[in-house]
Amino acid sequence: MIRQIQSLFVLFLILLIGCGPAAPTEPTAVADGATATATSTSTPQKPMPTIVPTEVPTSTGEPTPATPSLQPVDTATSTIAAPPAPSASTTAEQQPPTTAPATATSEPTAIAAAPVTPVRATATADPTATPQIRALWVDAFHSGFHTPEEVHQLIDDARRGNINTLIVQVRRRGDTFYRSTIEPPAETADEPAPVPTVFDPLQALIDEAHANGIEVHAWIASLPVWHWNTKYQTTNPQHVWHRHGPAASGRENWVMMRLNDDGTLSPTYALDPGHPDAAEYTVNVALELIRNYDIDGLHLDYIRYGSIYEGYNPVAVERFNTHYGRSGQPDPSDADWLQWRRDQVTALVRRLYIESYAIKPQVKISAAVITWGAGPTDEASWTKTAAYASVLQDWRAWTEEGILDLALPMNYYREYISGERSAYDQWIAWAKDHQYGRHVLAGPGIYLNYIEDSLEQIRRALEVSSSGAGVPGVSLYSYAATNVYSNEDYRSNEEARNKLPRQPWEYRPQLNSTFFTALSRTTSYTYTSGASVRTINTQPVFPKPAPVPPMPWKESPAAGQLSGSIHLAVGTSREDADGLVISLAGPEVRMLHSDGNGWFGAVDLQPGSYHATLTDRWGRVYEADVTIRAGAVAQLEFTLQPRAGAGRILLPLMAAGRGGGA
C-alpha cells in the first residue's frame, strides 16, 4: 500500500511539473551531474595474451607477433575462416540548400539531478603517499573472481601489493559475470557451467574492494562477441552471435567482415562499429552496467578494428558509399575509407562517454589501447603508429577531445630484449608528454618479464620526463600471470620458452604471490640456472598505500557536455539522419556530425547559451537553442520531416519534464 501511495505521489509531481521529451536511452543524472534539455521539432519535421610485443607486417598488412605468445588484453581479431592457433586460452550525402528552408526553435529547460550517494571505499591510504594509480588487469579466462574465495584472494593480493585499482573483465565475449537483462551469463573458464545464480561476481567484488579502499573498473570486450575456442562458446539462443552473427540475413547481420585478397568476404568474431545496430547494442550493454552497479570505471577493450582489411559489413560499406557518393567495395587503404572507419570507433567512444556521464558523471571511462612496435617520437609520427594506421584506433584524439578519462596503453614489451626495451621507453615517454588534460598510464606486460624486470619497468614509467611531465600511474597485465615463471603458456610453447635468457625454464605459479609481495617490500626469489640455484633480491616500487589521484574535470567540472538526437517523422528513413552536420555557436564554435543512429554529441563545452543549426539532406535548416552548464549534460533533439513536407514552421516553446535520480 505504501509503495502504491509513493507511486501515485511521484505521478502527481510529474503531472504538476510538466512532462517533456525523454532522452533516447532515458539516462538519469546522478550525484553532482544535472541534465538540461532543449528540443527542436520541425513540423516538416586478459584472456591471457600471447607472448607478443614486437610486430612485423605481413603481406596482408596485418601485424603479426614476432614470436608465438600469450594473447594480451587486446590482440587482433581473427577471422572465422582462419582462426588463430595460440598456445593457450584467451583471450552523408549532401545536396544544395532549397530556397525555402524550414526552421524551428525552442528553449531549454533544466532538469535537476536527484542526489545519490554511492557506496564508496572505506579504507584510507597513507596520507603522506603521492596519489598514484596502481591498477591490475584481471581477465575472466582464468580464475580470479569467479567464486567468493577467489574474490577474497584477489583483494588480499591487491592489498599486499598496495594495488588500489582492479580492472576486472566482466564481459568476456558477449557473456557476463554480472546480472544482465541483455546478455547471458558466462560459463567459467574451469567448468562448463554458468556462474551460480546465487553469486554475483561483480557485486561481490565491488563490496569487498570498496570496503578495502580499492576501486573497481568493469572491463568489457567491446566489439568481439564470439571465441574461436569451443570451450568459450555457448548454445544460449539469446546470445548476440546466434541472433546477429553470420547466419543472420540482411541488416540483422552485425558482424565485422574481412576483405580477402581474392575479393571475397569472411566474417570475424566481432561486431562492426560501422553498423548502427551493432553500435547501439554495444552502447546499451555498457550503459546497463553503469546503471546497475556502483563501479568506479568502465574499461573498454578491443575498441578498434582488427586491421585495415576489416569493417566490410554490407551495411557499413553502404553507409560509406552513400556519404561519399560511391559504389562497390572501397580499397582497404583508401584514405577516406580509413578515416571513415576511424570515425566510427571514435563516435562509439564519444557516445559511451557522454551517455555514461548523463547517468553517473563520476564513473571513469577508460580504454586499453594499442602500442604495437616502436612509439612515436614526434607529433607527425603518431599517424604512422599501428594504433592509428593499422587498427584505426586514434586514441590520441580521444584523450585530446576529452572523450576518455583514462588511456591505458598496452606496453607489453620484454625488458631483456634491447629493441623491445627501447620501444617501451619510447611509448612511456610519449604518454608522459601527451596527457591532454586527461590521464594516460603506462601498461607494463608483467606476464612477459622476470619479476625484477617488471619492477624496473614500473620505476622508469613513474619517473618524470625531461620536461618535468609524468604519468599518474601504471596498469599491470596480468593477475593470472605476473611473471614468466607463472605464465602457463610457456608450458606448451617450447619455441618461446627456449628464447628466455635463463634456462632451464620452470613453471612456478607460486611466484605470483612473490610478485605482489615484491611490489611493496624488499624480497627475494630463487631460480634454477643450469645446475645452480640463483637468488634475486628486489626493492619495492609501491612501499606504502597510495590514494587514487583526482580527476579535476570530473570532480570539479568547469565545462559541460551535449547529447543530441535526430528523430524521424513518417516518410523518412534512418539513412536521412546519418552523417548530418550540426553547427554549434556560442561561447565557442563546434561542428558536430551525427552517427548512423542520428546521435551526436560534444564534450568539454564552455558554459553558456548556444545556437544549433542542422541542415538535412535536402538542404532544409533546423535551428534550436541550448544552454550548457558545467558538470551537466544538455539534451538537444531535432525531428526530420519527409522531403515533400518542406516549409518554414516555428513551434511554440516546449517545457521539458523534470527528471529524478536513480
Tell me about this structure.
The chain contains 14 helices and 23 strands. The chain has 662 residues and is an alpha/beta fold. The strands form six sheets. It has an eight-stranded parallel sheet. A hairpin with a 3-residue loop joins strand 18 (581-585) and strand 19 (589-593). Helix 2 (148-160) runs parallel beside helix 3 (201-211) and helix 5 runs parallel beside helix 7 (335-359). The longest helix has 25 residues, at 335-359. The protein is globular. The two termini are 22 Å apart. Residues 1-73, 75-123 and 645-662 have low confidence and may be disordered.
- What kind of assembly state do the chains in view correspond to? single chain
Helix/strand structural class: alpha/beta
Strand order in the sheet with the most strands: 13-12-11-10-7-6-5-14
Look at the structure and give the mean pLDDT.
82
> Unreliable segments (pLDDT under 50, ≥5 consecutive)?
1-73, 75-123, 645-662
The number of helical elements comes to: 14
Q: What gross morphology would you assign?
A: globular
First and last CA, distance: 22 Å
Strand content: 15-25%
What is the makeup of the main sheet? 8 strands, parallel
Count all strands and give the number: 23
| Amount of helix | 10-25%
Radius of gyration: 25 Å
